[in-house]
Each structure stands twice: as C-alpha cells, then as structure tokens.
Amino acid sequence: MKQLQKYLNNIDGKGYKAYKSIQGSYKFSDFQLHVDYVQGDPFASPSRIRIIVPNNARPIKNEWKENKQRRVYVSDRIARKVSEAIQKESDKAKGSGKSGLIYIDSPGQEILERTAVLLGENECTICLSIGLPANGRRINGREAERLFLKLIPSILQRSIFSISDKELRESAQLADQHIEIRKQMRENGWIVFIADGSVLPRESGISNRPLKSAVPFRSPKENRVEIMIPHREKPLSGMALKQGINLIVGGGYHGKSTLLHAIERGVYPHINGDGREYVVTDPYAVKIRAEDGRQITSVNISTFINDLPHAQDTKNFSTENASGSTSQAANVVEAIEAGAATLLIDEDTSATNFMIRDARMNALVHQDKEPITPFIDKIKQLYNDLNVSTILVMGGSGDYFDVSDNVIMMDHYLPHNVTKEAKMIVEKYPLNRTFHVTDISKHENKRVFLPNSLSLRKGKKKRVQARGLSSIQMGETLIELSNVEQLVDSSQTNTLAEIIRYLEENSVLKKEWTLMELLDYLESVMEEMGLQELSQYPGKHPGDLARPRRFEIAACFNRMRTAKVK
Ligand code: ADP
Ligand code: MG
C-alpha cells in the first residue's frame, strides 16, 4: 500500500502512459490488490483490478460453497452488495474521460454464473474496472490515491466486510429451493412451475423490475400442485404445466404474452423479491420466433418447407436473408438440433403462415402449391416422435384446440383451465382440414461445420468483441442477436465473443464437430474449469463474463455469416 502511494506520488502530473508502472500487486491490511491492466489513455476502456479478500479477513463458510449452485448464488449476492456500495460511495468523476469510474459487472434480476466475484477455497476475489484519474492527458496522482486508498477500501467496508451471514445464507437457501423445485419438476414431467403469488408483469417494456400494481398469479385448480421445498415450512402451491402441448388463449391484453415472457425467463433463476423467484421453467426450453433477415446456414427445414420457387433445396437451406416463415422454421430445427426439449412460441412474434392455415385457404391454395406445412401439422409429431413439448400463445385461432393437451385461458391476468370447453368446441365445430403428417425423424439436422468457418478470417482485422447485449463484431462481420430473446445479460454476450476467440486460439476448430458435440464440449469447459477458462487473460481479471446457455451459444454460431457446413 505504501508502495502504491509512492508510485502515485512519483507519476503525479506526468503523461498518462506512466500509469503503466503501477501494474502489479499490493498488500493492504485486509486484502490484496492486483492491478492487472492499465488503460492506455483516460478515454480508453477502463483499467482492471482484482481485490483478493482472504477467508480470515471475511470468512465465507464452506457450506455456502458446498455445491456449484450455492457458490453461484452467494457470489451473485456479494456482487450485488459491492455494486450497491459503489453507488453509495462514488462521487462525480473528476477529470477527463473515465477518470474516477469504479465499476463491477453487477447482476440484473437473474442469478447467473459470472466472473465478477469468484469464491475460491481460501479467498474471495472481486473484479473491478476503474478509470484512472487524469486532467486532460496528465496523471492526477492525488485523485488516484484517493481512489485506491480511500474509495475502494470504503466500498469494501460497505460490502464484503459488512455483508451479513444472514444475507449470504438466504442466497444459499434460495439455491437449495431452486434445486429442489427443478428436481421435482423432472420427476413429475413438469416443464413449468409458477408459484401462487408470483408477480409476472414488469414495470415497463424497458425495465425488468416487478410491476408494483400487478395482479398476483393464482393457479387454476386443475393445474394446481403443492410441493415441499427446503427452508420453508408450508408447502409451495402453484401451477404446473406438464410435458406435451400447452396452449395459452384469451382476449387481447389479458396477460398471455406476459405469462409466456415469465416462462421464457424462468430458465434462469431470479432473486428474492423479483416476483419470479418461484417461476421455474425447463432449462431446455427455447423461445422460437420469426426473425426475418437472419442468416441461415445449411439447415434442413424440409419438415416445414418444401418446393420453394426456383427449386431451392430445403433439406440444405441457406440464405443471407430469411423470410418470416423460413426463419421461424430454422429456429425450430436449430433449437432441436441443440437439444431443446420445450419450444415457447407467441403469436405476437410468429409468422402467421408458419403457424396456421385454415380450411378455406387449404381449399383455395392446394397443398401442392403451398411450400409451407404449418407448425400445427407437426406440433404433435414433435412431441410424440422427438419428445419435444410446446407452450404456445394463440389468441387468434382455435385450430390448435385439436392438438392441445392442456388449454389455459388468461382472463383479467388470471389463468383458467378451459381444456374441457375447448375439446367440446372441437366436437361441435370440426376442423374439416387434414393434417399433413410425414416422418419427421428422417429430417434430422446434424450439421458438421467446416473447420475454421466459425472462426475469424485470417489476415483481416482479427478481433471479436461484443457490442452490448445483442451483437458481436467478428472481424468485419456483425453477428446480430437482437432476436435471441433468452440472451438476457450483456456479459453473456461478452462470453459468446470470448468463446469465438477461445475456439480459435486453442485450435479447437481444426477438427470437425457437429454442433451438438461442440456445445457439449463448451459446456464441459465452463462446468469443469469455470468461466474464467474462456478468458484471454489467464490468472488475471477475466473480463466481465456471465454464462450463456448452450442454446444461446448455438444461436450465435447459427447467425454467423461466415459459417460453412460440410
Ligand atoms: P396479451 O398478450 O394477452 O395481449 P399482455 O401480456 O401483453 O397481453 O399484457 C397486456 C398488459 O397487461 C401489459 O401492459 C402487461 O404489463 C399488463 N399485465 C399483464 N399481466 C398483468 C398482471 N398480472 N397484473 C397487472 N398487469 C398485467
Ligand atoms: Mg400478446
């Protein structure tokens, strides 16, 4: 600490580059500071430091680290606490560029595995980014001293050194409860569980916080279950949706999409107080939507689309500019290729001609002239042959009554089970259209990507970098992810960019992989070695990474405009 003070004194007033000399490690009374990376100028991306707090300075009980989930939840809680402390402590940045900035990659409403706080055997590592202070391009050593010797220690005082055991225990207990809910869901074949009292709607279209005036969720009695979970005396009651075909109907503005959104997000755990902390979805559930304009690379969409004009091959379909229906078909096939077990579909974001074609249209435009076999004709086969369930929001057409196992009607934001009524209507008004049944197991999509086609082009600008939540700059092309709705945190996008770089740097792509094998491989790297394994700075501040699911990794590969398939 004295050493750092001396360095800062020496370089005060010098050109910004002189900051490079503070790179290194410093001992403070109750933590160790590592300055891993020093920014080149006050406007460049901030410097990266790590704070290592040994267990004897702030004991983190072994029981809070006893399994992966508990570790993830407890480190998430610490990261939130640090973030709150930064907000309280940081005053207005003084000086040029990013001078005085202090930043931790703070979590949103979801609890994701991330690198912001890492719990080791004997220590807790906190990864921060800071803007080293300057006036113009001259070092402001006094402000730097205040930042390192005053602000950061008091942020740590307010967070890691004062967070109560109770808070950490609560997080560990939430992890236990989620583990148990997931276990019971698997045992019972439930793909969704939504506890009574949950708050599904969000404050606004741009806020992920709960809507305060919301009507709390109440399960319909036909779908109501009660489960016992740890750290809670009374059973938890709520709605369970079983595997199979679940249809959500109801009038416009009665809360259908809100329910589906909550289900989509339920693949990730949420913090206490979010309103969705007991909304749990099959982690293999994937949102499917139309996404016109996307790249498609050699996908077998022939289950849904055949005989396109100009004899385009749909068994091996590629385009740089997909239509609504072809993009939605590709999204279904690719999700299944990556291992999806549940598909989540909302009419609001679907291509109508992909979802339905009624009897009258069938009569006018004969099957031979229509390339699309609508999803309604395949939904049962997907379940019967491939064991892929669907949860579908459809307020505009009753055709799906025929094929649904369970029909939920949203009425004034509350769900009712109307399966019986729907089936009676099916008898009363039969469809008069034949379902187009083919053997879909023959249409399997098992692509082998050409070695190196997923990596950066040689020679050109070799850089891969996330640009916010929804795009990645890869060399000279952009990977567009804004319609990948279950990508929820920009640090997940950072990880996707790191994955691309990692595969290249470790020559992983020299050999041939099916997509499935590649996803399995990447998941095993993250599971066994931790996210920081993917970082380009081994042993240092790993960058702000959060773990994406295999489906979002697949979505990234699938949208690369450079990819080629054997
Ligand atoms: P739908 O898809 O049926 O047309 P939405 O799900 O889009 O309806 O919901 C319409 C509006 O109602 C949204 O503004 C949403 O925030 C609000 N809303 C949804 N569920 C609730 C609820 N439980 N309590 C209060 N408002 C809700
Ligand atoms: Mg809607």
From TrEMBL:
<feature type="domain" description="ATPase of the ABC class C-terminal">
    <location>
        <begin position="166"/>
        <end position="438"/>
    </location>
</feature>
<feature type="domain" description="ATPase of the ABC class N-terminal">
    <location>
        <begin position="1"/>
        <end position="160"/>
    </location>
</feature>
<dbReference type="InterPro" id="IPR027417">
    <property type="entry name" value="P-loop_NTPase"/>
</dbReference>
<dbReference type="Pfam" id="PF09818">
    <property type="entry name" value="ABC_ATPase"/>
</dbReference>
<feature type="domain" description="MRB1590-like C-terminal">
    <location>
        <begin position="463"/>
        <end position="566"/>
    </location>
</feature>
<dbReference type="InterPro" id="IPR046834">
    <property type="entry name" value="ABC_ATPase_C"/>
</dbReference>
<dbReference type="InterPro" id="IPR019195">
    <property type="entry name" value="ABC_ATPase_put"/>
</dbReference>
<dbReference type="Pfam" id="PF20446">
    <property type="entry name" value="ABC_N"/>
</dbReference>
<dbReference type="InterPro" id="IPR046833">
    <property type="entry name" value="ABC_N"/>
</dbReference>
<protein>
    <submittedName>
        <fullName>ABC-ATPase domain-containing protein</fullName>
    </submittedName>
</protein>
<dbReference type="InterPro" id="IPR049069">
    <property type="entry name" value="MRB1590-like_C"/>
</dbReference>
<dbReference type="Pfam" id="PF21117">
    <property type="entry name" value="MRB1590_C"/>
</dbReference>
